[in-house]
Amino acid sequence: MKRRSLDPETPDKSAELSLCQALLSLKSVDEMDAFLRDLCTPAELEVMVDRWRVVPYLLDGVAYREIHERTAVSITTIGRVARFLNQGNGGYMAAAAHASRRRAAAKRARA
Fold first, then answer.
1. Domains of the chain, start order
2. What counts of helices (H) and strands (E) characterise the chain?
3. What is the pLDDT of residues 30-56, one digit of tens each?
4. Which of 16, 64, 81, 110 has the maximum number of C-beta atoms within 10 A of its C-beta?
């Protein structure tokens, strides 16, 4: 993976923040889906989907082997996600909390 910016006017951190701002600017799931499909290769998107797919299971305390059996995601990937859930930057937890609140609000709206 390339680690240095080739453009001296755009340092890596600035480009990373610009990507974060672009992601935040999208207003719908359809817009986000289109952006991710344009940005990522199918393999890159599959890796991200696999990582996200195991988060709810890990938060519910499901054993790695059972998660693997339910999702076909590798034990290595499951372990990596678990490590970042516990020792990462808080991104998985923040996204999971937001997703949980959205699901609860949608459920209340249907009731």
1. 12-110 (1.10.1270.10)
2. 6, 0
3. 999 999 999 999 999 999 999 999 999
4. 81
